[in-house]
């Protein structure tokens, strides 16, 4: 998905905040949860999402959702990862 289409879909679905973030190569976030729904668009690199006992790898142009209050972790690929995230409270 292209960035403009992603941002338009965020607005349509009630995601009012956006943040852009970069992870360094192999950077991992410990398991955590958020008090909001999140939708992410991978801009570059690869990101592995560990959620509910499963792991899935996402690359540029791919989109995924993380529901509020769901424990998850993120691991950047060997080249790092950058993403745009929408937040819906």
From TrEMBL:
Residue stretches making up the Cupin type-2 domain: 23-74
A matching Pfam family: Cupin_2
Residue ranges, annotated region (Disordered): 60-89
Protein name: Cupin domain-containing protein
Organism (species): Falsiroseomonas oleicola
Lineage: Bacteria, Pseudomonadati, Pseudomonadota, Alphaproteobacteria, Acetobacterales
């Amino acid at each position: 998905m292209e960035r403009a289409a992603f941002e338009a879909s965020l607005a349509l679905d009630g995601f009012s905040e956006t943040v852009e973030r970069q992870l360094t190569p192999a950077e991992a976030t410990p398991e955590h949860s958020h008090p909001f729904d999140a939708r992410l668009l991978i801009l570059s690199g690869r990101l592995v999402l560990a959620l509910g006992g499963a792991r899935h790898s996402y690359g540029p142009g791919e989109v995924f959702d993380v529901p509020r209050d769901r424990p998850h972790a993120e691991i950047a690929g060997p080249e790092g990862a950058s993403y745009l995230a929408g937040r819906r409270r």
